[in-house]
Each structure stands twice: as C-alpha cells, then as structure tokens.
Amino acid sequence: MAPHKMGAPLNLPASALVTHSPAGGVGSQARENGHGGRSGMAEKVPITVTVNGVQHRHEVEPRLLLVHYLREVLHLTGTHVGCDTSQCGACTVLLDGQAVKSCTLLAVQADGCQVTTIEGLGGDGQLHPLQEAFWEKHGLQCGFCTPGMIMAAYDLLSRRPNPSEEEVRHALEGNYCRCTGYHNIVQAVLYAAEKMRGSR
Amino acid sequence: MAQATGRRYIGAAIKRKEDPRFITGRGTYVDDLTLPGMVYAAMVRSPYPHARIKSINADRAKAMPGVLAVYTGRDIQINPLPLAWPLPGQKGSPRLPLARDKVVHAGEIVAVVVAEDRYLAEDAAEQVEVEYEELPAVADVRKAIEPGAPTVHDDAPGNVAFEWSLGDQAATDEAFQRAERVVRLELVNQRLVPNAIEPRAALAHYDPGRDEYTLWVTSQNPHVERLLISAFIMGIPEHKLRVVAPDVGGGFGSKIPTYGEECILLWASRQLGRPVKWTAKRSESFLSDAHGRDHYTEAELALDGQGHALALRVKTLANMGAYINFFNTAVPTFLYAPLLSGQYRIPAIYCHVTGVFTNTVPTDALRGAGRPEACYVVERLMDVAARDLGLDPAEIRRRNFIPPDAFPYQTPVAVVYDSGNYQGALEKALAAVDYQRLRREQEELRRQGRYIGIGICCYIEACGAAPSKLIGQLGAQAGLWESALVRVHPTGRVTVFTGSHSHGQGHETTFAQIVAEELGVSLDDVEVVHGDTEAVPMGMGTYGSRSLAVGGSAIVVALNKIKDKARRIAAHLLEAAPEDIEFQDGRFSVRGVPDRAVEWGMVALQAYLAHNLPEGMEPGLEASGFYDPVNFTFPFGTHVSVVEVDPDTGQVKILRYVAVDDAGNVINPLVFDGQIHGGIAHGIGQALLEWGQFDEDGRPITASFLEYALPRASHLPSFETQVQVTPCPHNPLGVKGVGEAGTIAATPCIVNAVMDALAPLGIRHLDMPLTPPRVWRAIQEARARQG
Description:
- The structure holds two protein chains of two kinds.
- By secondary structure, chain A is of the alpha+beta class.
- Chain A has helices at 14-20, 28-33, 66-73, 129-136, 146-159, 165-171, 183-198, and strands at residues 45-51, 54-60, 92-95, 98-101, 114-116.
- Chain A has two domains: 14-120, Beta-grasp domain (Ubiquitin-like (UB roll)); 129-198, DNA polymerase, domain 1 (Orthogonal Bundle).
- In chain A, 53% of the residues are buried.
- Chain B is an alpha+beta fold.
- Chain B has three domains: 19-26 and 481-627, Aldehyde oxidase/xanthine dehydrogenase, molybdopterin binding domain (Aldehyde Oxidoreductase, domain 4); 33-135 and 198-249 and 255-288, Aldehyde oxidase/xanthine dehydrogenase, a/b hammerhead (Aldehyde Oxidoreductase, domain 3), CATH 3.90.1170.50; 292-465 and 631-786, Aldehyde Oxidoreductase, domain 4 (2-Layer Sandwich), CATH 3.30.365.
- The longest helix of chain B has 28 residues, at 547-574.
- Chain B starts with 18 loop residues before the first helix and ends with a helix.
C-alpha cells in the first residue's frame, strides 16, 4: 500500500487492512474474546519497521495507529497527538522520506518502510539545521507542535530548497500552532533553507 | 533595579534554555509518561445537552477482557468542584466531577471506564448503556432569559446566575441626557474554544505503602490544583498529594481550572492500586475544556459635538455555560468592566452584567479573559463614533486619550492606571504604516473598486491581578501574590524554584536572565524549576500575564535577601564593613580598594563551609521571597492593520499588521515578540475564523478541527512589531506583562479594518467571525439596498 500523503483524510475500507495483513498472526485471541473486530484483541500482525535507522519487529493489532506504535511500543514520545481528525499535524513523521500524519496511518501500513521521527533528525549529537533554526529564531513556545512542524518543514525543504514565504506558509497548512502565530516558524524555515543551501 | 544600560542579560535577545529538549523531541508532557502497571481511563460523556439519567448499565463493558472497572457518579463519592471567585447572590447547582442524576451540557461525564490499554478503554466506553430522558435545552443567552425558556438549574429561575454592576449609573444617565451625539452598537462577542495543541491529560498514582498520591496533570497552577483537590474535593491531606505539571503544551486559560477528570483518576487509582492515565481526545477537548468569551452586549457612547466622550453605558449578557465554574464569575465582571475606560478619559461609565446559564460547555478564562471583550466594546464604539462624527479614527482617539501627565489615573470603573503614554504608541504605529499616505492610497484604490480597510486599535489591559487584600475584598478565594525560592549551591550555581508555571512562556530563560544579571553568574549556571509541588514550596501559577510582573518580582525579593547575606559574608572575609562592599559582575570588592576582592563562588562556598562566618550567622545561602503587588499593571499599545476584502468571495486578506506594544521593561525581546505574535494570531482567529457553535438546543456543532477553524500559517501575514517602553512604576523589574496583549488588540483591530473596507457600502457593523459567507452576504445585501 502506498504511503498516504499529508492533507486528505485516509478512509480505508476494513478489507484493505486484511489483504495487507500477512497470514498467520494470533487469530485465536479474537475468537476467544468474542468481540471480533470491535475489540482490541483482534488478531495481531507482524511488522518490520525501520525507525530512525533501527529495525524493529513487532506483532501489532491491525488497528494500532502508527503514532501509538511510535509512542507506546517504541517509546519515541517526541511525536505528539493533538487531534483525532488529522488536522493538527503534531504527529507528522517521515515515511520513506515523505511527511505523513502518523495518526492517519496504521502501524501495519508502515510495514517494510523507513520512518524518521524528530528523535532521528540530525544525528551524532548534532542538531539538524531546521532544529537549529527553530531555536535561533524562537520558532517554538510550548514545544508541542514543534516536532511535527519541523518534520513538515523538512518535507518542504527536501522538495523546494529555496521556498518563498508564501510557499512556506502554504506547506505548513497542515500543522497547527497556537503559541507562535507562525511568524517565527516561517522565519525559522526560511533561515534553515538558507543554511542548508549554503552547506550544499 | 539598575538601568538597562550596561546589562549583560536583562534586555538581551537570548535563545531559550528550554528549547533543546523540545526541538529534539525530548520534552516530557503528561501523555509521554508511563508507569509500571499503568492503566487507561476513558470517559463516557452525555450526547445530550440536557437530560435526566434514568439508568446506567455497565455489565457488558465490565465483562470485556482487559476492563478493570466502570464507575458512575453513584460510585464515586467526591465533592463538587470548588469556585475560585463566588459572587454575592449567585445561583446554580454545584458541578460534580461525574454527573449523578442529570446532565446539563453535552459532554458531561456520566461514567468512566478503566482498562488495560487505551483502545480497550474506548471500546468498553462504547458498551456502557446509559438511558436518558431528554429535556428541553437552551444555548443562546438571549433565548435563555426569555420567559418560558428551559431551566438549566432549578434553583436559578430564569437562568440568571447573577446580576452584577459597576460604575455610577446616575452620573452616566445624566451625561447621556445632555450628550450631543450618542453611538449605539449591539455586539456579539462569540464563543471561542481554547484549543491548546496539547490536549488535557492526567496520570494519577496512589502509593499504598506511603499512603501518598501523585498527580501529573496539564495544569497552569499545580499548587492551586493540589489545594483544591486535597482540601475541598477529595479530602486528601495536602502533604500527601504531590501535583506535577511537567512540560505543558499551551494553556491559554483552559488549564487553570481543576477538572473532574483528574479527580476521578485519583479516586480510581486508589480503588485499583494501579496508576491511571487519561488523555483527552480533541473531540473531548471541545466538549470539556472551559470555553471563552460568549457575550451579547448593548453598548452606548455619549459624546459632545467635537467627539469627546462623555459617558459609556454597557449592558452585557454573559454566557456562563451550564455551570458556575472556577473563575467564570470573575471573567465577565471584575476582569471586564474595570477595563471599559480603555485608554480614554470617559467621565462616567456604568456597566451591568447578567450571568446566564445555558446548556452549553461552561465558559471561563481564555487568553485575555474579559479584557478582550472590554476592549472590543470600547474600540468598536470609538470607530463607529468617528464615522458618525466624520472624524478620522486616529483623531477621535487623540481627542480622548488620557495624557501622559495624568498618571496614576483613577478611572470611573474602580482601577487606577499605573503609567502610560498612549498617544506615543499611536503615533509610532501610524508612522510605521505612513498613515496619511495609506489613507490617500485607500482613496485611490476605492475609486478603482477595491475594498481596502485600515483598522486601528488602542488597547489597554490589566495584568498581575493584585493586591491580594483588594482581591479578597472583592470575593476571590485566593491571594494573588507569587513566591520564589532561590538556592545558591556551594559552587555558586543557582537553582530557582518559582511558583509561576511555564507552558510556553519561556520562564526557564527569562527568569534565569534576571538571576544571572543580579548575581553576576552565567546563564548556564542558573536552573529554573517549576511545576512540581514537591520541589517548589508554594505558587499561584501562571495566567493573566502575571508571571514576570509578580513571579519575576518574587525572585527579585529573594535575590535581594541572597545578595544581602552574601555581602555580609564577603565583608567578613575581607575584613570590611558591609556598606563598603561593592558587588559587580560576580565579584565583591572593598570600595576604593578593587584588589581586595572575593569571588561569588568563594562566598557561596564559605556560606556552606561555615568555617568563617560572621558571629551568629546561619550557614547556607538560600532565600525565599513572596511578592504581593501593590496594583495591577496596565500594558497598552496601538495595533494597525490593513486589509482587503474581495467583494466576489467575501474573503478578507490581511495585507499588513503593525503592532506597537508597551509593557514596560523588556527582559528578553525574542520572548516578548513571540508572545505578541501568538496573541495577535489568537485575536485574528476570533475576528475572522473561530466560533464555538451550538445549535438552538445546545447540541455542539463545532466539536472537532473539521468544524472549528483555527488560524493556519496561510491565514496570517508576517507581523511588524515595535516596542515602546513606559516602565511600571510599582514593581522592582518595571515590567507589566505581555501574554495577552496581542489577543486583546488584534480582534477589534481587524474588525475595525474590515468595517473600514466596507464603509463605502454603508456597512456599519458585522458580528464576528468575519467569515467569507458572512461578509459576502453583507456585501450583497448592501448592494441591493444601494440599488
């Protein structure tokens, strides 16, 4: 299944998930609890996901959201949940290099994929230029939207290394911030773009 | 304190100390916490705005594997949520953490499910069968006070929660009788939903071995939360309850109150012997976070023929929602009417407020809390008055400003403004936009059929509510001081424990700047601790833009004690008199003998070695300070916006936004600007986008981000900000507070601009939010009228 791009809501029929699930699993649990697909005990599905360069294998419920897999199974709590309708973008991560809202994807959809979260940006104790720019330009206040905002900006700069202010504002439409009024976020993204172009 | 010149830290645009953890995803918000054995709660909420609970059957839910318990209001016997500011004669039933017999708004909790994981808890919550008897409901304040309207609380006939007034009614009426001009407006200040991006969350842990509770909660004021839960709601000994508000993802007022959820969790944790966590889904935030605003106001301004204000008369219906809640009695009264004088000399003002119950989510403090509503009344009236009198909106304001030499200024609505230079800020803002040229361009573009509008807002706000004695006389159930504990370690490094709480405001940096400046240590040598009742001795928390003016001042009080003791130790070590000791850049020296000196770190070490202290001096170097302000602070400024309205779509585009803000001395310009930016966005959100709606029967229409429009980056322009500095004369830092200013200013600023754009069509006023359909329809109607 192709990774879902940011923006439009994902509305998968249940059958799509079944075909995605490899055979096997622990189907007995669903029958035991007598609640079938409605309950949390539905048959678990093995997945292999590479997160921030580390390969993980887990058996997960088909309905487990990717964001909950990251936060509660892998304990990568930098990716946040701010809404239940895929509007706020606090949960934005990179799936095979593209920004996705991890509350809109199931963990099973990330099977075989590379995921990058805020914890995996930068590396070797170094901040990524976007992280540095958010710090330098005071592009964050409470910090809750920040990881998602940075990941969305990463996606933009990987596609458009020299965006205009308007393009930055457009690209961040899927990410809410209630603290900064976006002014310094936009400044930070433009500043990071400049730094990243300079280092090429 | 010393002048700003020659300072290293105060006034410097220093990058925030707290940012590294946030930009690397290593912050610690409540939902990030996991404890061994932790289980999850899900709330069963009423879908009905008004209903009797006939029965609750949880058998099916309880039978589900992984479900530990289901509790209803009959199981959980804890007290109602207390009120922070009761008014005389107020009515209405108390608010229980869980409804027992009746629900009065959609979203009220009727049962709670605890299960092994959050998915299971949600599944089981769906299986709880609640039988309701639906009752007639009402959502709109004007309808709620009509005869025969459904009654929200039996003990509040006519749905009146309270009647309250301020000002001299007779003098106001008399001034209206002799006025040459009277300007009238009906204003709807629509309901807003706060929507901090981090949803509310709580994790409760009962330790049976120690008989102690710990509550991690998204709170702006953990000590207040501890006091209310321990002493009033649950009867837990205060010292047996630890409340921690760790990293909190924005508050905007919505995380001030103590909510039912965290009390339920504490209770359940004790029953089950397991840590219990709950995190609001956004849809729950819409149904359970305290909402803001929601006023219907009739306002009249009396003027003479030259545009001088003579009197202001205001009548407001304030929607309390379904309950008297925490601070919501104070918001449309004490935090509203005292601001109705704006920046102007208005000889007589009278304001009457009726608090009205409806079957909607309770309202409370939201960024600005009463002050944006007041500013909206005054600044809309000023603009309409200018138009009626044929005056420029800047000119009518000039004619009415309180002049700079009139401070302290006693308004007719109780408060005394501390300091101000209102015209200074206006002229600075007008110069920034080149106002005269802008007006000429507007004329030119109007001739081309373009609808350009220029909006001016001259705002005032009151921060750092104080003094405690006065607040107490007015009925508040709390003092509004702040505390700080400054601990100097033997190496000279410093930990500051502040009763303020940062949920984005940057205290870990700005407070450290104050300490570093005062003690001459480096910024890295100062750690600011907040948000934990176990660590911080006492605190009143953060709201009403009070942290720097009150919390920062408390730190200065403690620092003065530290410096005094350190000076006496230094004098003893240098064999000099304390009054001959100079302290600069972290070095104590004997006046006139600069070589006879001792470093800060050595003094700190000696304080703890205690080998050679002055006779009778206690060892150690730490001090606490409590600061109780003598007055409110009154920040002010002028914002100017330029908008264009597309007549074919009704879309409002903001072309420029200029802000001149004066909040006294500035500790960190980065943080100052950031607060202004965020405030402006919030204010623009109200003017153009946001509206918490219920249908006629109280059913929520906006219950997710799909229906409720929050400002996005693409809605907003870059902001052009400037600072003017008129120091606060009555606190040691000379600061006033900047957290709400932008919000207060931006809403009327934008509405004034849009009304200015639509003036050629004869449109005088439209209620917010000025969405494209609303603006488009008004344009169509106006054109039809004009033929």
